[in-house]
Design goal:
Blueprint (H helix, E strand, L loop, with lengths): L4 E8 L2 E12 L6 E4 H6 L6 E6 L5 E13 L2 E10 L6 E2 L1 H6 L2 E4 L4 E4 L6
Parallel strand pairs: 2-7, 3-6
Antiparallel strand pairs: 1-2, 1-5, 4-5, 5-6, 8-9
Length: 119
């Protein structure tokens, strides 16, 4: 097993011209993506609420959550994003991957198209 990092473009859904690129660790076990608060603030993305999260060691923490637009490899999607604090890792989570129509195979460390089913 290894770590897989990708460059992801993040923008403000209300103003897609406000964007930046961030290197993130793909964490398909994480529901939401985590992006530094200072980056989200610079993009004028506003927190919509605060949610409680549980770390792998059982520790609980609260973080602000907003909505961001993610883009990678020509794929785009809007999804919740966690306002990361200084010690938080920059993560690309499952909902952002799914919003962009992608999934991650942790064995081959490949990004793959997500099978889209309606019904």
């Amino acid at each position: 097993m290894g770590l897989t990092f990708v460059s992801i473009t993040i923008s403000n859904p209300a103003d897609p011209d406000k964007k930046t690129t961030v290197d993130c660790l793909i964490d398909s076990g994480a529901v939401y993506s985590v992006i530094p608060k200072r980056i989200l603030n610079n993009l004028k993305i506003k927190p919509e609420e605060t949610r409680q999260f549980t770390l792998a060691n059982g520790e609980k923490m609260k973080r602000a959550v907003g909505i961001a637009r993610f883009q990678m490899n020509g794929k785009k999607g809007g999804t919740p994003v966690v306002f990361g604090e200084k010690k938080d890792s920059d993560l690309l989570g499952a909902t952002a991957l799914e919003a962009m129509g992608m999934t991650f195979n942790p064995l081959t460390r490949e990004l793959l198209p997500l099978l889209m089913i309606i019904g």
